[in-house]
Write a structure and sequence with these properties.
With 301 residues, the chain is mainly alpha-helical. It folds into two domains: 2-88, DNA polymerase, domain 1 (Orthogonal Bundle); 100-251, hpI Integrase, Chain A, CATH 1.10.443.10. Helix content is 54%, strand content 4%. It contains 15 helices and three strands. It has helices at 2-10, 16-33, 41-50, 56-72, 78-88, 100-111, 117-132, 136-141, 170-183, 216-224, 234-237, 249-262, 265-272, 277-281, 289-298, and strands at residues 147-148, 153-157, 163-167. A three-stranded antiparallel beta sheet has the order 1-2-3, with no helix packed on it. The longest helix has 18 residues, at 16-33. It is globular and about 55 Å long.
Length: 301
């Protein structure tokens, strides 16, 4: 299976971020169906069943990656795959729902991490996700030179290859600075210019004392954990069930908080970098005046 995936990925003519996303999606596919699974309808059905409770956006991109893999290798079951997709695809976009209290508990827990490089990295990373709205792949792709430290902002190439400005909170900047000061001793004689060094690094045994960027899947494992490998993630450390927080929920949290603070849908759209205001509108059910009116009508004492 891994050889088939490598062949497919190497043939993709897509943006760097999209290729990374596809690779991560296919890693998850393999973890679900197994390394020796055949590219047939039964394998695809197993995959669909396993991801049925994931967010619509995650399911869409993961299905696209897996269908692309099947198509590239000319699976004999492509007709059946398309039939299965017709039954699982949902029309329209749902309102955004996530466990806000769970996300806040994780952010609060990580904001208190200190000591080791891993602790400092994870603190800076979670605060970055929560306070900037960056997608996890975008955060992992950041280079130090991308950030204007005085203005607390960065110009990034985001989804669809679009350039955008991302703003950083003061607590995030401070957490990043502390992390980078601690990283100074990792590889002091490196030939990699400081501006080209990744913002977030690997600190595992295989990375040793070298500057190595961490992948989105590696970073998410640090946050989410991996019970099969005995890795306890930051989510469970915070006293939250690991299935209550999904990879995109930190971005949901960011958009929600910007909307609740100002009740300005256009401002939230700009800060979230949504190409369509329809996407941002999915958040406006949170804290609407209708909630207060409902209480006044039905919950009178």
């Amino acid at each position: 299976m891994q050889e088939q995936i490598d062949q497919f990925i190497s043939a993709l003519d897509l943006s760097k971020n999209t290729v990374k996303t596809y690779r991560y999606a296919l890693e998850r596919f393999v973890s679900i169906v197994g390394e020796d699974a055949a590219l047939d309808a039964a394998t695809f059905q197993k995959f669909l069943t396993a991801v049925k409770d994931y967010s619509p956006s995650t399911k869409q991109i993961w299905r696209s990656a897996v269908v692309g893999l099947y198509t590239f290798h000319r699976s004999n079951d492509l007709a059946e795959i398309q039939r299965l997709l017709r039954f699982t695809r949902k029309q329209g976009k749902r309102m955004v729902n996530f466990e806000r209290e769970a996300v806040e508990k994780v952010v609060e827990h990580c904001s208190r991490l200190e000591g080791s490089l891993v602790n400092l990295r994870d603190r800076a990373f979670v605060l970055t996700l929560a306070d900037t709205g960056l997608r996890i792949s975008e955060a992992c792709a950041l280079k130090r030179g991308d950030i204007d430290w005085l203005e607390a902002r960065a110009v990034i190439i985001g989804k669809g290859g679009k350039q955008a400005v991302v703003r950083f909170s003061q607590r995030t900047i401070e957490a990043l600075r502390e992390y980078h000061r601690a990283c100074a001793a990792i590889e002091p004689n490196t030939r990699i210019p400081l501006k080209s060094q990744p913002v977030f690094l690997r600190h595992d045994i295989r990375a040793s004392k070298h500057i190595r960027p961490i992948s989105a899947s590696g970073m998410w494992t640090a946050i989410k954990g991996d019970p099969q490998r005995g890795i306890l993630g930051r989510i469970e450390e915070a006293g939250v069930e690991r299935n209550l927080v999904r990879v995109h929920d930190f971005r949901h949290y960011f958009v929600t908080m910007t909307y609740l603070a100002k009740r300005d849908i256009k401002l939230s759209q700009e800060l979230a970098r949504h190409s369509s205001i329809t996407t941002t509108n999915r958040y406006t059910h949170i804290g609407e005046e209708a909630d207060q009116a409902y209480d006044e009508i039905f919950n009178k004492n």
